[in-house]
Amino acid sequence: MFRAIADVLRQIGGAVATVVTLPFRALARLFGGASRSTRSRRV
């Protein structure tokens, strides 16, 4: 029974972690893509 509870908590924690990191990943992708595109334009 404790193992089932631990699995549920682990899944909830993983979901919360992905939701929290998604905006930062999107921002990093935006800034990373912008810097890459400016570098390619200069060359």
Give the secondary structure arrangement, pairings included.
Elements: H1 2-42
Summarize the structure in words.
This protein has 43 residues and is mainly alpha-helical. The chain is rod-shaped, with a radius of gyration of 18 Å.
List keywords for this structure.
43 residues, mainly alpha
Question: What's this, in brief?
Answer:
The protein is built from 1 helix and no strands.
Mean pLDDT across all amino acids: 86
- Structural class by secondary-structure content: mainly alpha
User: Which sequence of SSEs, written as H and E, runs from N to C?
Assistant: H
In total, how many beta strands?
A: 0
Q: How would you describe the shape?
A: rod-shaped
Helix content: over 70%
> Can you count the helices?
1
Stretches where pLDDT falls below 50 for ≥5 residues? none
**Distance N to C terminus:** 61 Å
